[in-house]
Specification:
Blueprint (H helix, E strand, L loop, with lengths): L6 H11 L5 H6 L3 E8 L3 E2 L3 H10 L3 E4 L6 E2 L6 E9 H34 L5 E3 L9 H10 L13 E3 L1 H7 L2 H12 L5 E5 L2 H10 L3 E5 L3 H14 L4 E5 L17 E3 L12 E5 L6
Parallel strand pairs: 6-11, 7-8, 8-9, 9-10, 10-11
Antiparallel strand pairs: 1-5, 1-12, 2-4, 3-5
Helix pairs in contact: 1-3, 3-4, 4-5, 7-8
Length: 285
Amino acid sequence: VLPSIPISLIRQWLQDDCPTFDVGGFVVGDSPEEAWCWGKSSGVLAGTPFFSAVFECVGCTVEWMYKEGAHIDASGGKVVIAKVRGPARNLLLGERTALNIMSRASGIASQAQRMRNLKEAHGWHGEVAATRKVTPGFRLVEKYAALVGGASTHRMDLSHMVMLKDNHIWSCGGIAGAVHKARSACGFSSKIEVECSSYEDAVEAAEAGAEITMLDNFEPEQLKRTAARLKDKFPGLTIEASGGITEDTAAAYFSPHVDVLSQGALTQGYPCLDFSLKIQPKAKL
């Protein structure tokens, strides 16, 4: 899924954790060691490319026992996920950064997979998507993890697609004017999405040339009625539902007329999976 990882990003994360001098690293020295990464909670494994990149950056190697996207079953106790080899101080230098990344990525992927399983169980045709509610500096990991779990990333950042929300509309004076101005800048090559609070807003957006309307903070039945009316009038319109949708309430929003459910909870407040890295005593190797 991920063709490359910017090495500058890895270095930034490592420098954030060790800006000057690692006294603990000085204590353990450079003796070659092997550390085992233990998975201690069940879920979807995600973030292994970042984990590997961190250790490669500090001169270590990683051997994986599980593949990216695999399900970890720790119900019977912790399991070995990977083995990392290198100088002791380097293992410990990369340890917390690598584990932090993988625990968070796996938490997102696990939650995304639960949502994908839910929509498949209900036979819903659409996509569950993340949002731009990501952690600054951690966007790539969180969006990537959503993909591993089977969700859509939605737009990656402000440069991907055009989304006109309430603040854009209010500042511009109206939906049609905002859409026309956006089209003059983005041209034919970018889609335009407009956040709408009523059927009338969505009609105005579609008639102005928006390809996607986001029905925001609609109650489930109101959403379904509005989406059906819009699809009848604009069959090619993509309809997204958003606003307070959770894993517990998502099924109520599934509709043949709704194409996307976006969920900020995929990258906000997700439960992390628990991993640890332990250097193995020489006698056990």
